[in-house]
């Protein structure tokens, strides 16, 4: 690896875009957060990202020539090969949106696009919960559910270099409808959106209230969490029996808010597995929180430039 | 790759051990099949495998010095690193059984042990349904259910180099008990053993009779197949959303006997997926049948020796 950093990391989610200037050791030198406002147009978002790049570089007395490059993690589906975002599901209207070419043209440095779950896992493997572990599966439970597999230091890729969408493994037959067209996907059961929707039907405002009410003996809330537990348990077994990772990392806003609960469900599932080597698989919380995307995206640019 | 073959391939299953002398182009020069008779002891099986090696080499006027080596595929769990078979589940009494050392000592050539599902997939990728495809997932449905992922020409490995047991992904809540300790694993629902057991409860002798009776309007048989279909559909979705392979290969005795049925269920599942690139994932039957294990095991020895 000849890369010396720094690099710019961009983390594009449904609600916000985080942009950071990251040093070669993973430290965030400076960062900014913009609202995504996908529905206001892709070109507008690209323009604002470029403006933020210029501001971050200027304020830190750097030029683009000092950068290894730019890494972008974006809520998928994305196509790393073509540089296109194809995610009208959570980024309204963003279909066939080439983000690599305009950013590369603006800065004159190489730009790489990856799925947000992949770069978050790269970040955790760099300076977080995935250090010295192989393979690593990171499951991110927030507004949606994403997953990533890192094996031998590389992002595991499917056909055409694309990203397997772990949030859509089926875990419950006849469960709630998922936007992907199936019922009972992991995302339709354990995402913050899903827990909140189930909670609202029981008169509870959000996922946090569901957990609080269940702890206070609220029967419907307990029933919702029983389904979440069942889905989470199945997801961990699916991960164990498809990927058999050394480390399962749990991240995302929903996990951060209920860390002990999710870790305990996942660890119990691992402990019951007889077809995985005893004691070889561990479950740990993500360490980088909301910074994993920016750090991992920048790290990916350093790796690719190296 | 400097290997020029031939190599010996060994395929150890619960009922039989197939042994073949395989040319560098994948052609089986000669082969023999022994009953496994695991309960009669591991040492006896090793002795009979060595005798068969000597016979195959002698009859083909070859010496061990002409071989690239020996590849062994065995019903898992196996530990490729230590060379140990740890599968008391389907090989009665075979726990901590080092098969690499005695065979290497007997022939004086390198010996490699892998999971049987992995070497079958290596065989199919060599001269069968997986040629020029990447990644490849092979799902083998026979007495049990095995799976393998080949990515970039390599066997995908979990922690400690071990094999993820795809037969134990959970597909139905509260389904039948599996020997792994969970209910509703893929293997407990779609294996030949599972279909036959469900059939016997409905007065049908075996898996073949279940398919035949369902085709003739037998309600209980149709109900059994409805569950098998549901489990198979979930398994394909799990494969798509964890691994996103270019090619899914379906193999094993149960698939061979009902090829159209299984292919159609799997292809319908792929066609419904919206989170996988359209038209990028195909499902094909295995082409090597019962020879995949021997060819793949020998091929693995050629690759490792190369």
Explain what you see:
The structure is a homodimer of 306-residue chains. The longest helix of chain A is centred in the last third of the chain and has 24 residues, at 219-242. Chain A is globular. In chain A, helix 5 packs across helix 6 (207-215). The first copy, chain A, has ten helices and 13 strands. Chain A has 306 residues and is α/β, with parallel strands linked by helices. In chain A, a hairpin with a 3-residue loop joins strand 1 (7-12) and strand 2. Chains A and B meet through helix 7 of A and helix 7 of B.
Question: Helices, strands, pairings?
Answer:
Two copies of one chain form a homodimer.
Chain A: E1 7-12, E2 16-22, E3 28-35, H1 42-59, E4 70-74, E5 78-79, E6 84-85, E7 97-98, H2 100-107, E8 111-115, H3 116-127, E9 136-141, E10 145-151, E11 154-155, H4 187-190, H5 192-201, H6 207-215, H7 219-242, E12 247-251, H8 253-257, H9 259-272, E13 282-285, H10 292-305
Parallel strand pairs in A: 1-4, 4-8, 9-12, 12-13
Antiparallel strand pairs in A: 1-2, 2-3, 5-6, 6-7, 9-10, 10-11
């Amino acid at each position: 690896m000849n890369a010396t950093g720094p690099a710019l990391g961009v983390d594009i989610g449904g609600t916000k875009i985080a942009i950071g200037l990251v040093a070669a050791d993973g430290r965030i030198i400076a960062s900014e957060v913009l609202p995504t406002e996908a529905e206001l147009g892709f070109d507008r978002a690209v323009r604002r990202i470029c403006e933020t790049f210029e501001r971050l570089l200027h304020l830190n007395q750097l030029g683009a020539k000092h950068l290894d490059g730019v890494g972008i993690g974006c809520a998928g589906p994305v196509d790393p090969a073509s540089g296109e975002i194809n995610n009208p599901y959570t980024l309204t209207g963003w279909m066939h949106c080439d983000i690599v070419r305009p950013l590369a043209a603006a800065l004159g440095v190489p730009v790489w696009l990856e799925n947000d779950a992949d770069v978050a896992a790269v970040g955790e493997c760099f300076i977080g919960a995935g250090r010295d572990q192989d393979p690593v599966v990171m499951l991110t439970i927030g507004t949606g559910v994403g997953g990533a597999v890192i094996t031998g230091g590389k992002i595991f890729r499917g056909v055409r270099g694309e990203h397997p969408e772990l949030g859509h493994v089926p875990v419950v037959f006849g469960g709630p409808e998922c936007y992907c067209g199936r019922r009972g996907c992991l995302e339709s059961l354990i995402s913050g959106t899903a827990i909140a929707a189930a909670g609202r039907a029981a008169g509870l405002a959000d996922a946090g209230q569901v957990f609080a009410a269940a702890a206070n003996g609220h029967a419907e809330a307990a029933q919702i969490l029983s389904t979440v537990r069942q889905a989470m348990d199945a997801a961990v077994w699916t991960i164990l029996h498809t990927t058999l990772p050394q480390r399962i990392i749990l991240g995302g806003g929903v996990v951060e808010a209920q860390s002990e609960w999710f870790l305990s469900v996942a660890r119990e599932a691992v402990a019951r597995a007889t077809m995985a080597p005893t004691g070889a698989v561990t479950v740990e919380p993500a360490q980088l929180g909301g910074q994993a995307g920016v750090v991992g995206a920048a790290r990916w640019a350093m790796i690719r430039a190296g």
